[in-house]
Design brief:
The complex is a heterodimer.
Chain A lengths: L3 E7 L2 E7 L5 H8 L18 E4 L2 E4 L12 E3 L12 H9 L8 H14 L5 H7 L11 H13 L4
Parallel strand pairs in A: 1-5
Antiparallel strand pairs in A: 1-2, 3-4, 3-5
Helix pairs in contact in A: 2-5
Chain B lengths: L4 E3 L4 H8 L4 E4 L5 H6 L7 E4 L9 E3 L5 E4 L4 H6 L1 H6 L1 H7 L5 H4 L4 H6 L7 H7 L3 E6 L2 E6 L4 E3 L2 E2 L6 E7 L6 E8 L10 E9 L5 E9 L6 E2 L1 H7 L6 H14 L10 H23 L6
Parallel strand pairs in B: 1-3, 2-3
Antiparallel strand pairs in B: 4-5, 5-10, 6-7, 6-10, 8-9, 11-12, 12-13, 13-14
Helix pairs in contact in B: 9-10, 10-11
The chains are: A alpha+beta, B alpha+beta.
Bound molecules: flavin-adenine dinucleotide and FE2/S2 (inorganic) cluster (2 copies).
């Protein structure tokens, strides 16, 4: 058994694809599906740039085999915006300049969406805790935190 | 990484049959195993995902008041479990220290135990609650105290055909409290330089009748601080008593020098954390300041 078929849903689209059991979910998303919004930083769970949401839970896609995603629902950063425009959290990051080089941004967005799905009114400490697994080398985090507090203040998360 | 065969058994007997072959590794959250595979520190011919086995993913109350936690239950599920938060708060607190939220959503209790890192954050709390590891293999079942399963860094007593099915937390006597604290330079995403879990049980006269203290990151395995426990039994909680217990715990520890801290520094941390965890456990049981 070297190859197997992975059936899952990514950003609402059903996918069925031949995978190697060694492929990580990150490799599957980037290399098979061409969804390169999800970034590879450290590939060992430390930086969070590969964060996606699988069945409602944020996780590091570099630390999950694609084979584990059988029948799962996956959301990547590409799944956040709609034809109407940016997701609320994306809008807030733009307004506050919470992104510079942008490498950490997809992961930060996914962690933030995971947080708001669970807790629509997080305080600053809860926001900082939620993004503790997302390393940003540019912003110093202040503007990211401000942006996420603004989402809270608006009280509106899609 | 060499090519491996990926299996998803649906029951513990199927799991044991799959595990009973050379270079077969269980995969729970993969937060320890996948980095080890990537770095070729582990060779796998078979990888067995345990997350589709219902008996390993449940938390269930035992008839005698204890709690059974399936080995594959995640840190997030444990931290959010009302019954764990109410009855075993030191465990709920310790699993919420593991890595980041992304890691906690995947990291399992069984993986934290079976990876056998001296720094495993959930293990001291399990040890001070007197938790049992329920192991199953081709020859049947056996249950050991959690602390009995470690034989060295990354090594356990589990045989090739054996798996950790669940952890049982015993029902606790009245007037029992436990607290885990670790020291890390960063609050999150860091590994304990030292960690201490202290559990005490008081009698009606506020005398300590039982104490279990467990240490992380200060020996080849997580370990019990038995000399520290002995100083406490039969005594009434006081700051002086907890100072003495801390000093005893520092000599129970057998730390090494490494990049995270020197052996001397770790001993010092153990004495401080031991005193603090004892004081905050006592606070949960007795009103007012310690004498
Ligand atoms: C970025 C990052 C930060 C981390 N921070 C911390 C931290 O702060 N504190 C901490 O304690 N840990 C930390 N860890 C380590 C790790 O997340 C934990 O040890 C976690 O609990 C492991 O669980 P898992 O389900 O991911 O294990 P896996 O990686 O799936 O398994 C670990 C080992 O146990 C074996 N195993 C798993 N389940 C069983 C079973 N039921 N029976 C027999 N063997 C089994 C596996 O074969 C493997 O050898 C961190 C890891 C990462 C990547
Ligand atoms: S690439 Fe996955 S956490 Fe860094
Ligand atoms: S914006 Fe550059 S790493 Fe965060």
């Amino acid at each position: 058994m070297s190859k197997e078929i992975l059936a899952c849903t990514v950003n609402g689209d059903k996918q069925s694809s031949l995978i190697d059991p060694r492929d990580t979910l990150l490799e599957f998303l980037r290399d098979r599906l061409g969804l390169t919004g999800t970034k590879e930083g450290c590939s060992n769970g430390n930086c969070g740039s590969c964060t996606v949401i699988v069945d409602g839970q944020t996780l590091c896609s570099c630390l999950m085999f694609a084979a584990e995603a059988q029948e799962c629902e996956i959301t990547t950063v590409e799944g956040l915006a709609t034809v109407e425009g940016f997701h609320e959290v994306q809008d807030a990051l733009v307004r506050h300049g919470g992104t510079q080089c942008g490498f950490c941004t997809p992961g930060v967005l996914m962690s933030a969406v995971g947080l708001f799905n669970e807790n629509p009114n997080p305080n600053e400490d809860e926001i900082r805790l939620a993004i503790a697994g997302n390393i940003c080398r540019c912003t110093g985090y202040e503007k990211i935190v401000k942006a996420l507090q603004d989402v809270t203040a608006n009280g509106e998360v899609a | 990484m060499d090519l491996f065969n990926f299996q998803t058994p649906r029951s513990i007997p199927e799991l044991i049959a799959a595990k009973n072959s050379a270079n077969a590794w269980l995969l729970a959250g993969g937060t320890d195993l996948i980095p080890q595979l990537k770095e070729d520190r582990r060779k796998a011919e078979t990888i067995i995902d345990v997350k589709k086995i219902a008996a390993m993913t449940n938390i269930s109350a035992e008839q005698d008041g204890g709690l059974n936690i399936g080995a594959a239950v995640t840190a997030t599920t444990i931290a959010q479990s009302e019954i764990v938060c109410a009855s075993y708060p030191a465990l709920a607190y310790s699993v919420a220290l593991i890595g980041s939220r992304q890691v906690q959503n995947r990291a399992s209790l069984g993986g934290n135990v079976c990876n056998a890192a001296p720094s495993a954050d959930a293990v001291p709390a399990l040890m001070s609650y007197g938790a049992l590891a329920n192991i199953e293999g081709t020859k049947g079942k056996r249950s050991l105290m959690v602390e009995e399963i470690f034989t060295g860094p990354g090594r356990t007593v589990l045989e090739q055909d054996e798996v950790l099915a669940s952890i049982t937390l015993p029902a606790l006597p009245e007037n029992t409290a436990a607290v885990y604290q670790r020291f890390t330079p960063r609050r999150e995403m860091d590994i304990a330089v030292a960690g201490v879990s202290s559990r005490i049980t008081l009698d009606a006269n506020s005398k300590i009748v039982d104490a279990k203290i467990a240490l992380a990151s200060v020996g080849p395995t997580p370990l019990r601080a038995k000399a520290a426990e002995m100083t406490l039994i039969g005594e009434v909680p006081s700051l002086k008593l907890f100072e003495a217990a801390g000093a005893a715990a520092a000599s129970d520890a057998s730390p090494i020098d490494d990049t995270r801290g020197s052996a001397d520094y770790r001993r010092h941390l153990v004495s401080v954390l031991c005193r603090r965890t004892l004081a905050s456990a006592t606070k949960e049981l007795i009103q007012g300041d310690l004498p």
